Amino acid sequence: MAWALALHGGAGPARGRSYDREEAHLAEVLRRGADMLEEGAAALDVVVAMVGELEACGFHVAGRGASANADGIYELDAAVMDGVKRRAGAVGGLVGFRSPIQAARAVMDQTPHVLLIGAGAQAFAKSAGLEEVGDPAAYYTPAVSRPVEPGELAHGTVGAVARDTAGRLAAATSTGGLLNKMPGRVGDTPLIGAGTWADERVAVSCTGQGEYFMRAAVAADISARVRYGGQTLAAACAGALADMETQGGDGGLIAVDAMGNVATPYVSEGMKRGIATHTGRFEVKTFR
Ligand code: ASP
Q1: Residue 185 assigned ligand-binding role
Q2: Which atom of ligand 1 is the closest one to the Cα of 210?
Q3: Which UniProt keywords apply (predicted)?
Q4: Is the CB of 264 inside a 6 Å radius of any atom of ligand 1?
Q5: Helix (H) or strand (E) holding 215
Q6: Phi/psi class of residue 236: alpha, beta or left (left: φ > 0; alpha: ψ in -120 to 50)?
Q7: For residue range 13-35, what is the model confidence (pLDDT) as tens digits?
Q8: Cα 189 from Cα 90, distance rounded (Å)
Q9: What are the sequence ranges of the domains in the chain?
Q10: Would you say 236 and 222 are in contact if contact means Cβ atoms under 8 Å apart?
Q11: Statement: 4-145+168-270 belongs to CATH 2.40.440.10
């Protein structure tokens, strides 16, 4: 049965730097996800597991590798969407928890809401029994430690999209957001339809300058292009990304469709990414 999986570790990696370590880890995680799908796991469980591993490794600007905001606080965003019934869960500005994607999944599974933010998200994550960070200075190992401009692209958001053997689609994304961001700033990642989307046609996870992805509703636009425009997945992704770029933004995305097609386009310098499919395709790349 046709399963497909794509992962990303963020748009905008710097040329001239080696990403061997990140690529090797991405390949390991991708292999585990491919095995899960091969064994019949649900797309939803696979994308949450993949993003959880990418959060925990500390190699990307998400989870353990996140950077603090301009006030030195680690405020993280994440979202998950299940294409089957369009159920979704998300957290914005979550402080103090190791796995924002687990918190997003708990919002989806355990509340009548889609998005919880700030103190409310924190209280909910605590009541859901999710693992806390403890001392932030001891836990976080920021993937980017050089001085940064406010709002600089983090090139380390992580995401996963999958089509499972039963034809179900799901998407998950997690991020520390833009580097040196203003306290309270929330990007596209936890906004359903902007940075994350899944329905019966497509599953999409975006990375890049979130403000532009929000203003172009990139993830939902891809579904609309397929649905109303009859576009292929590749054409829909290219069109939505071009619309975002026209506004002045930068970034990329990963997407799968109901037939198991995969697209991983980007308009940034590069994008850490991996693709695995039931046909034996297995690749991990950062640049072209
Ligand atoms: N899209 C993320 C945000 O704006 C950042 C990134 O993908 O690097 O929060």
Answers
A1: yes
A2: 4
A3: Autocatalytic cleavage, Hydrolase, Protease
A4: no
A5: helix 210-215
A6: alpha
A7: 888 889 999 999 999 999 999 99
A8: 9
A9: 4-145+168-270
A10: yes
A11: no
